[in-house]
Each structure stands twice: as C-alpha cells, then as structure tokens.
Design brief:
361 residues, alpha/beta, TIM Barrel, 2 domains, 14 helices, disordered N terminus
Amino acid sequence: MISDQKNKYFNHSRMLKLGIDFPFLIAPMVGLSHLAFRELIHFYTPKNINVLRFTEMLSTRRIPNEKLDSTNELRTGRNESYYIPQILGNEEKFIKPSIEKLSLKNPWGFDINMGCPVSHTLKHNWGVRLMGDKKYASDIVKIVKNSTDKPVSVKLRGGVSDEENFDYLLDFTTELQNAGADFITIHARTRAQKHSGSANWDLVAKVRNNLNIPVVANGDIQTAEDALYLLNSLKIDGAMIARAAVARPWIIWQIAEMLGNENPPDAFIGQLSPKTPTEEGKEYINACLLLLKIFQEYFDDEEYILEKFRFFVATGARWFQFGHHFWRLSMRSKSVEELARQIHEFSQNSENPMSYRIKML
C-alpha cells in the first residue's frame, strides 16, 4: 500500500475505516467487468497497491443454480482478491443462497445494484427502480448485511427520474446508511441520462457532507487528474472509474504516480506509466494483446472471447483516433489467432495516438 506520507493527499477519506487506503475503485460494468478485465487491471496495478475491482451485475435469481467455476460471469482469477460481486435482487430467498455461494470465493465484500436503468432489470423491481422506495431499498440492505460478515456497499444514481432531487437523494442514502450500508457509490447522473452527458460531482460532495459513511463518486472520470480532483478538491471519499479504465487500464498506475508512489507494476520495473497520446496509444494495443492472452488462459469458448473482446474495443477505442478502424478489424476477425495477428500487424503500420478526453455518449 501507499505510505502514510502519500495518504496525506486523501487522509480525509472515510474509506480508511474500512481498511482501504487507496480509494480508487474499478466499477462494475455489464459485459466488461469479467475475470479477464479484472486481471488486466491487476496487471497494470503497482505491486504495493490493492484496488477494489467489481464484477458485472449478477442476478440473484440465477446464481443459486449456477456453477462458480464454469459460469463465465462468476469465474475468478487464480488467487484473485479485492474483488466485489455486484448483485441484483430484492428477495431474501434468492439473496441469501447467492451470497452463500459467492462467499466460497472469498470476495472483499458485496455491492447492491440500485442504479441500472436497463429495462430487463426494472421489470423485477431491481436496479434504479429500487430508488423509488427508500424503505424497500433499506430492507434489501438489511437482508444482505444479515447474509454476510463482509462489507456491503450500494451503487445508485444521482436522480431517480429525469431531474435531480437532493432532498430525496439525501433521505434515501440516509436510510441506506441506517440500514447498515458500509459505503455508497453515486453515479452522478440521473436515470434519464443513463451514461451520457456531464456527471454532477458537486451533488456527490453535498451528499458526502451530510452522511457518516464513505461516499464514492462515479461517472465521467476520464483521467487520473479527474479522480484526484474528486478527493483533493471536493473531499469525496473515493473515485470509481468505469469506461475510462477500459481505454486506460493503467489509470491506477497513473494515479499512484501522481501521488508519489514509486513502485511500478511487476511487469514494468524501472518504467513510468504511459503519459503522452502516443505512449498511451501504443500501450492500448499492448493491452489488447494481453487481454486476449488472459482470455485464452481462462476460457475455451472462442465465441465468448471474441464477443467480449469486441465489446471491450467498442467501449474503449472511442478514446483513440483509430478507434473505428480498430473496432472494424476486431469484427472482421474470425478467430482469436487471426485477431491477435491482425492487431500485431496494425500496431506495426501506424502511430495511434490517444485522445485526452472524449464526449461521453
């Protein structure tokens, strides 16, 4: 972990009470936060830092009947630690056995999804629909807390409809706090915004100043500077990075360097993190090749690997000037071997700089 000297930059963070002295988290993302992506993030993480990495959302109606070692969404890396399953659910008869099964993999904690706006989650009164009833939502927190002795967090939205309502949001999060939530993460966009537009980080700071438990900000964190701004300037307790970590899986390394950490990831001894557009563009190609190797190490199904890799590229390559061409390349490849060869050839033929920021869509 980072030394006490480095912790001076965010020693206000109440995450320290949970044993988290590096409060920068990698978000749960549907179709992206699988085992291979979490291992990719770990590869680029300095060896003296532990980073909480969330799974994609997992249905508690399905988990009790699934196998931990063969269901792709439930699989974990060898000796994987500091990961958090994110669960969807609202019924004790499904939540308890799901947590019991997932606990066999020794997760750091559990996260409850109260922010997903996708229609198939809403029909079960899951996701952001839970934000419509604070008593109902707090009861779910109590069910999860009674099912585990590990930390329990909740990820929710900055607004349950198309407009923000601070008074309601504060009442809602206070109920979660009173129910025993150990920390909450606020995706600082409304339900109507989904993943587009600017995130209202000031709203998260305002909630944080009115609660006693840690409050983490999520949404539109594109750079290491963004993440540090949330803690240093707004005094929020943590920053949860989502799609930018798909484009910059080394973003934790960048943050650590900015905090004065001199320990690189194991594979980069004596090196500094990518900084310039050209350096980041080059490293992105390396990361794509590494991701394919990780996929092949853990998965045998080529269709699954190609599907998830293409989604990874569709999400992250938007930060790159060559993004559309690179995505088309991934779509044309018919096998993992062909895809790896095409990526290698692509990297030899051109310089591929990265954009600092993009407009979130």
